[in-house]
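Duplicate of #3305? Posting structure anyway:
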């Protein structure tokens, strides 16, 4: 008689540890995708069309639930970050930043997303593709600069995200690696004071898009970010930026549930 509850309890414990184990494995993958070189990223910005707001609340709730299913379905291969741009940008209401070891996984997620009822109300206003790489210039920087670059970003929430696509001019790519390293050292020296308050990530887009780089930042301090851009506009490397932004996307970092909640009210 007493064996049944014991078996039930053991089964529950086994199931729970399996679930915790698989969640940990997924979280670990996400960490890797967000930090490894050789990872493909897609930034897809959307506007919500006016008809979406005419839908009844029940229909909007069902549509939002279907989006969550799509995100869950692709969670195994794709790390999906969401941002609210509405109110801060005329270009878009929301932004997805996806990372995967294969660009096709990003595409597959976005195609499924656009196929949902919510997706049919989304107008894709810009998309940027890029990949992460090991540092090109840092290995040839002096040791003190390398050490300074290891300064950790201050802990705490960074509610703002900024995406700036950049295209360099032909003269930049024609320069020797040595000259570019010297100019990037100047860029780095000007930017170092902002390491603690601005978290950054660089994506290489040559051949994958019309731009050369997608630069991505998170910060709590927009005044610092503004000063950082001004400092970088004063170094010679800036003369080689043929396109800077256009668009610059400024938004706030939110979980998918928060973004969908805000857009389905
Ligand atoms: C905390 C602020 C920043 C620091 C410390 C910083 C530092 C660096 C470093 C060390 C590199 C060289 C990476 C390598 O070796 O491959 C680099 C590259 C680059 N940074 Fe920054 N940066 C900062 C902010 C910015 C900002 C605000 C922008 C423009 C919006 C920017 C645009 C770029 C671009 C386009 C490259 C790639 C250049 C190339 O490979 O030709 N950076 N940055």
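Output from current build:
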């Amino acid at each position: 008689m007493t064996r049944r509850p014991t078996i039930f309890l053991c089964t529950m414990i086994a199931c729970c540890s399996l679930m915790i184990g698989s969640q940990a494995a997924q979280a670990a993958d996400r960490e890797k995708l967000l930090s490894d070189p050789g990872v493909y990223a897609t930034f897809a910005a959307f506007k919500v069309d006016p008809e979406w707001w005419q839908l009844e609340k029940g229909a909007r709730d069902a549509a939002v639930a279907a989006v969550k299913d799509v995100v869950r379905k692709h969670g195994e291969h794709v790390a999906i970050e969401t941002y609210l741009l509405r109110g801060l940008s005329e270009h878009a209401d929301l932004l997805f930043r996806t990372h995967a070891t294969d660009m096709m996984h990003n595409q597959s997620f976005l195609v499924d997303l656009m196929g949902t009822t919510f997706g049919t109300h989304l107008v894709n206003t810009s998309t940027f593709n890029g990949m992460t790489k090991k540092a090109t210039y840092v290995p040839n920087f002096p040791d003190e600069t390398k050490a300074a670059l290891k300064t950790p970003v201050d802990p705490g929430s960074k509610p703002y995200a900024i995406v700036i696509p950049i295209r360099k001019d032909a003269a930049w790519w024609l320069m020797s690696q040595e000259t570019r390293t010297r100019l990037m050292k100047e860029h780095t020296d000007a930017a170092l004071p902002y390491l603690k308050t601005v978290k950054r990530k660089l994506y290489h887009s040559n051949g994958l898009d019309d731009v050369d780089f997608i630069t991505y930042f998170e910060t709590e301090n927009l005044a610092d970010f503004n000063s950082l851009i001004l400092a970088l506009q004063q170094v010679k490397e800036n003369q080689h930026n043929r396109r800077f932004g256009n668009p610059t996307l400024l938004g706030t970092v939110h979980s998918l549930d928060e973004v969908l909640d805000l857009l389905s009210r």
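Confirmed duplicate; merging threads. Confidence is low (pLDDT under 50) at residues 1-25. The CA atoms of residues 39 and 101 lie 5 Å apart.
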